[in-house]
Amino acid sequence: xxxxxxxxxxxxxxxxxxxxxxxxxxxxxxxxxxxxxxxxxxxxxxxxxxxxxxxxxxxxxxxxxxxxxxxxxxxxxxxxxxxxxxxxxxxxxxxxxxxxxxxxxxxxxxxxxxxxxxxxxxxxxxxxxxxxxxxxxxxxxxxxxxxxxxxxxxxxxxxxxxxxxxxxxxxxxxxxxxxxxxxxxxxxxxxxxxxxxxxxxxxxxxxxxxxxxxxxxxxxxxxxxxxxxxxxxxxxxxxxxxxxxxxxxxxxxxxxxxxxxxxxxxxxxxxxxxxxxxxxxxxxxxxxxxxxxxxxxxxxxxxxxxxxxxxxxxxxxxxxxxxxxxxxxxxxxxxxxxxxxxxxxxxxxxxxxxxxxxxxxxxxxxxxxxxxxxxxxxxxxxxxxxxxxxxxxxxxxxxxxxxxxxxxxxxxxxxxxxxxxxxxxxxxxxxxxxxxxxxxxxxxxxxxxxxxxxxxxxxxxxxxxxxxxxxxxxxxxxxxxxxxxxxxxxxxxxxxxxxxxxx
Length: 503
Description:
The protein has 503 residues and is of the alpha+beta class. A hairpin with a 6-residue loop joins strand 27 (455-460) and strand 28 (467-471). The model is unreliable at 184-202 (pLDDT under 50).
């Protein structure tokens, strides 16, 4: 096995990658003769009966990703409207000039749009979450590289379970990445001229190395179900659709006045070597999912893409209640403060009980000298809310406890599912459709607007740094339709480097 062919880049995200997997049982689709349904990583995939068979090892590309155009062109996978991008584009035009029609030739094209986006589609009413292909498709793209490659060699077992091989790079090229619509930059947005000017300003870093940590990725449960044993005690909570935020009361560097001669010397020194005097003191550092918002002492920093710094807004409210050496991770939901713009929207605003102009902060993780479990996070938030209810109404109305829906083992939750055979697959399938316990595929009852529930998050209760999300199918559908119209606030911050067009 040549491990250098398939790799992970620094930007690898498990939620938006490709996997080498084995095809399971092919299941019939009512009213369909040529296609069937199979389940890969807990997701339904529609396949051609004559193209894919049970036991085949294939490459699976996840939903809402974007594939490299050279691969799509080599396999003539662009749709009819973009047929000129395919390798057989000239051949098709020649046949059209000879009198053949679109109906005669459409089969020579695929179904991908120009963006190369992988999105959920329904075929005969069956949802298909992703795209799969065989080694032959890779050989059409890079025949010399894949001449002697056997995908089976990449599969391995952990705890007796066959685990997919994940990657986002092939032969040194970025093969797959998250799909984000092309957008024009807005003043203050990542990559905009305003941001570039701000980078040129003299800034003083407040952060002491190793004192601040971003949140780990909450990866899909579908890819990680094998990590949870029947006897593991877990906490399951409702996943809220907002924007991630972090508040950390840690020692920070603060500037001290320079003496007159030090100021004089600095006139002749480059920025990187200028004399600085500092002192350490505790202060609240706040951040989005990927960016420390007050890392620098710089009065000229812009509020960002949404023109309202919702992270600072919450920071100003909860600052008195975050003890020293505590970091709180959570979700801000509702509306951008003082506006009618929802923080997240699909078929409607995800308000979570907020009126326009209001927002809430829901803590889901706390770290002090140890990692708190989810129950402790919930109890801390409730205790704080009870304490400040009468003394600080503003802070009280901006807080919400973690919406826990179940604590216990999955074996206790589904005692009828035997643990000795395909337990993980059976439990995952049950959870995906569990309306009774988790409200899956229902509208979000915490919201006044009629919007689909995003899903649930499952955590182990043994303080393990591990949390997994399971999203609802209706949410995926609504998100996919909305993605072409608006850009998720977190996607804009995290992925815009690859996908943003300049003015």
